[in-house]
Amino acid sequence: MNELLQPVVTALQERLGGQVLEFSDQITVMIDPEKIQEAGYILRDEFGFEMLVVETAVDYWPEQSPRFHVVYRLRSIQHNLIIGL
């Protein structure tokens, strides 16, 4: 994991109870849907993530319930970082 991204991930884990997934050098922090807005504020106000790069969804039917997961990828241009929620 990028050492500049570690404090961001730690903050989301500690404050929102996020679960970290790492795949192919991409970091995603899974959080409860009702905490997305708070996560966005934390990322924007405290860590300089100013751009929503991608918003998409994944269908995990029939393996998981709820079957749909919304995925957000945010970018900090200043720090050259990308994180997923």
Question: What is this entry, summarized?
Answer:
With 85 residues, the chain is α+β, with helices and mostly antiparallel strands. The chain has helices at residues 6-16, 36-47, and strands spanning 19-23, 26-30, 51-59, 68-76, 81-84.
Tell me about the largest β-sheet: 3 strands, antiparallel
Strand runs, count = 5
Anisotropy-based shape: globular
Q: Which secondary-structure class do the elements indicate?
A: alpha+beta
The ordered H/E elements are HEEHEEE
Counted by DSSP, the helix tally is 2
Mean pLDDT equals: 93
Strand order of the largest sheet: 3-4-5
What does the secondary structure layout of this molecule look like, with pairings?
Layout: H1 6-16, E1 19-23, E2 26-30, H2 36-47, E3 51-59, E4 68-76, E5 81-84
Antiparallel strand pairs: 1-2, 3-4, 4-5
Structure explained in plain terms:
With 85 residues, the protein is α+β, with helices and mostly antiparallel strands. The chain has helices spanning 6-16, 36-47; strands at 19-23, 26-30, 51-59, 68-76, 81-84. The strands form 2 sheets. The chain has a 3-stranded antiparallel beta sheet, with no helix packed on it. A hairpin with a 4-residue loop joins β4 and β5 (81-84). The protein is globular. The mean pLDDT is 93.
Keywords:
alpha+beta, two-stranded antiparallel sheet, 85 residues, single chain, 2 helices, globular
